[in-house]
Amino acid sequence: MSLDPAYLTYPKRRLGYDHEIYPWSVIADRPPLRWPGDKGVAVWFCVSLEWFPLTPADVPFRAPGHMVTPYPDYRHYTAREYGTRVGFYRLLDAFANAGVTASIATNAAIAERYPDIIADIVAAGHEIIAHSTDMNGTIATGLPIEEERALIARSLDTIKRAAGKRPRGWLSIARSQSWNTPDLLKEAGVDYCCDWVNDELPYRFTNGLVNLPLNHELSDRQVITVQQQSADSYAQQLRDAFDWLAGEAGQDHARLLPIHLTPYISALPYRIDAIEALISDLAGRSEAFVAPGDAIVDAWGARR
Amino acid sequence: MVEAAPVADPALYDFQRYRDRPRIVWPAGKTVAVWVAPNLEYYEIDPPANPHRKSWTTPHPDAVGYSHRDHSNRVSHWRMAEAMSRNGFPGSVSLSVALCQHHPAVVEDGARRGWEFFSHGIYNTRYAYGMDEAQERAIIEDSIATVQAATGQRIRGWLAPALTHTPRTLDLIAEYGLDYTCDLYHDDQVGTVKVKSGQLASIPYSLEVNDHYGFFVYNMSPRDYADTLIRQFERLASEGARSGTVMCIPLHAYLIGQPHRIAAFERVLEHIAADGRAWIARAGEIVDAWRAQQPGDAA
Questions:
Q1: Number of A:B CB contacts under 8 A?
Q2: Minimal CA separation from A26 to chain B, in Å
Q3: Taking residues A245-260, what's their average pLDDT?
């Protein structure tokens, strides 16, 4: 018994990547870059605003945070709704108190079901990033291209109707893409996606789409829910990251600290204190350019 | 080819209890040999399937899985390497040798810092499971030739790609003149591996304090992981006064080189460097020092 001889052939063993999606670029080799106001660290708060149908579809896969128990799973459905009804407003207040504008990655279903919350987001000056249709709108290879194209269009169009403005950014559920996703996003007029986590600055795909890396390791879901660490530890890690990035940026370079928050995780009464203090603390740092994703992408595009 | 039947005990080494062992001494009276093992890896985005194991657990492309690892080769390798260099720690690299083709700048950076390279297979997405002898010889020969061409170094060690082995792996690498394996986790000291021909030592690789275990198996915070490494060091440095021990710190830049972790890790390196009991060395040097103390077995 042995493996197929093809298993020991390496047709894409070459300089660069084994794909054409984006070119290789080492952060240390890039030209000097500063954020507006001569700041070294862009701090990007990105909040996911999600509607989980009580009937999870497992095609192509079930979203993280989706229903757990047999139908009807009121426990998880309502716990996530708590995040949208109550927790999100704690975050809005925290941002307002700190003078921070953020990106809100929003399911189209939120815009359809709760137009008031969209109005509140827009009134507060936050950016809305398209975040699929609802939490059944997962993408992976195998999803027929027409279905994916329609899903992207429905998400963008629905948010535009509610918000009055077409989103420039896209976040896939669980950051999961198909081979078609970057081209479909470009075709739909999206400027940037947040799905690839391999950098600490924006960079451009081969097709012109920008990727704004939303580090999944620094999400509240990863640290608090998956790794089961405290909100205090989570906030500590973000401060440590900021301090390191500020030192690395120095006077000539720029870095990006993405902070991905989920209302039903971070905005619970016993956790929100740590998150509020974190937001205020980072907003007050002299090296921080606190901005939503579109402003970071624009500043990067103008200055690089 | 007829495969040998599975055996319950591979008889790779003699049992030797952790007391009354011959005394191992490290240079300058140090009690613990400390080596840092960065994994410089390449994971393919769409590798061919091995019938025994899937490369990615999600449908390809796994945007997060692939790009998370890619963070090493764009950003965090240099952050990790600088922290090591600042504190006087060379690397002994488990290398996906195809990285010499994909991202030669990463390999050159390690070579420039005086790091030692051993093989971690061609890609970390090509598994040895199911390989016949000719196929396994091919990846060993490829590894030797590729690293030689890229760095001028003759590899001495092996860490199986994604820790995938065949029953003949250890015999084959010894036959090709490699003299240490990082694949056996049965001891805190270097020991002899029984192979059909040649010489093979097992050097402790300390999988339990691998940053992957720390962050993704045990779900530690960065500061908890740093505390774990310091405790590991303190215990091994203390026990090493009896007979020299080995502490390995296996790393992945995409994990340890994240901005929320690197400062805590650098404090570990500062602690070990300042302690005075550590012989900070490359894997091959540790194997050489151990071998020189083996009766009738001097290389």
A1: 158
A2: 4
A3: 97
